[in-house]
Recover the amino acids of this structure.
């Protein structure tokens, strides 16, 4: 699989999006330098990687961590286009500028995409950039912003930048979306609908990561032999049914045209370094090494 250099990880809330982004960055560090960009206000992916020792030397390459905020990117943008810092600061503090930024919906979100584009342009060719993006709905809206901004600003600097960002997110060899999902009907439906929305935008979908996949531990015959142990029999049957749900979800996603990467269910109360390494190995085998 020829992997894009910028991987935008999104999915329905509760599908393990941030954990997948963190594990993917960890897996990619086995092959080359990685930057993890966290757009989550809770910094969930960065916090997950904080549990991993020697992260800066991982795989001989290290993982660079970067948190971006909409307001921070707006301030950085103004300071880039206004040469005098004092004037730039005065603009940001003025009520007039506040009205302008409010009148251009999506401006701050757009500038996050512009920053990602600049980082990708500046990075060496072997560096992979993994983005812990907003949940599906917010991520799709974020990716729509360049087109909307071109209509709102038909000329000038913003229009030019919006055109460049739209080209960037549509470049099949540079930018791709990784959708996380679980073996649940609502989650699967949202992933399939998100893939269709990405197609309308011209943005490529790399794969669906099916999280918390179960395997059947017992056959039907073995479960039948537990008839005298009702509690154990119920647990064994539930595990078998969960494995069947996993198999059905894989079939549904493949039928919808997805490449599917399966991640195992980890029976742990919390996820730390050991668990992230397990998920990283699964992502390495299922995505990066193909």
């Amino acid at each position: 699989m020829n992997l894009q250099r910028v991987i935008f990880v999104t999915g329905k809330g509760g599908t393990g999006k941030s954990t997948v982004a963190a594990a993917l960055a960890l897996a990619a560090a086995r092959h080359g330098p990685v930057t993890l960009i966290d757009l989550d206000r809770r910094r969930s992916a960065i916090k997950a990687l904080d549990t991993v020792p020697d992260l800066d030397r991982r795989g001989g390459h290290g993982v660079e961590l970067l948190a971006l905020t909409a307001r921070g990117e707006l301030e950085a943008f103004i300071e880039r286009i206004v040469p005098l810092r004092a004037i730039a600061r005065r603009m940001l503090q003025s009520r007039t500028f506040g009205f302008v930024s409010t009148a251009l919906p999506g401006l701050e979100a757009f500038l996050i995409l512009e920053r990602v584009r600049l980082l990708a342009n500046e990075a060496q060719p072997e560096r992979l950039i993994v983005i812990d993006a907003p949940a599906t709905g917010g991520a799709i809206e974020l990716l729509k912003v360049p087109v909307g901004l071109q209509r709102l600003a038909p000329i000038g600097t913003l229009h030019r930048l919006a055109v460049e960002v739209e080209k960037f997110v549509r470049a099949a060899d540079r930018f791709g979306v990784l959708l996380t999902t679980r073996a649940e009907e609502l989650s699967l439906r949202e992933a399939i609908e998100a893939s269709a929305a990405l197609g309308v935008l011209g943005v490529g979908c790399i794969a669906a990561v099916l999280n918390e996949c179960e395997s059947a531990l017992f056959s039907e015959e073995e479960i039948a032999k537990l008839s005298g142990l009702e509690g154990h029999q119920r647990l064994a049957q539930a595990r078998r049914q969960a494995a069947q749900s996993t198999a059905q979800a894989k079939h549904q996603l493949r039928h919808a045209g997805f490449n599917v990467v399966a991640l195992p269910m980890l029976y742990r109360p919390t996820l730390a370094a050991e668990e992230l390494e397990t998920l990283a190995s699964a992502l390495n085998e299922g995505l990066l090494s193909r």
Summary: The first strand starts at residue 6 and ends at 11. The domain at 6-288 is CATH 3.40.50.300 (Rossmann fold). Strands lie at 6-11, 34-38, 63-67, 128-132, 175-181, 205-213, 260-264.
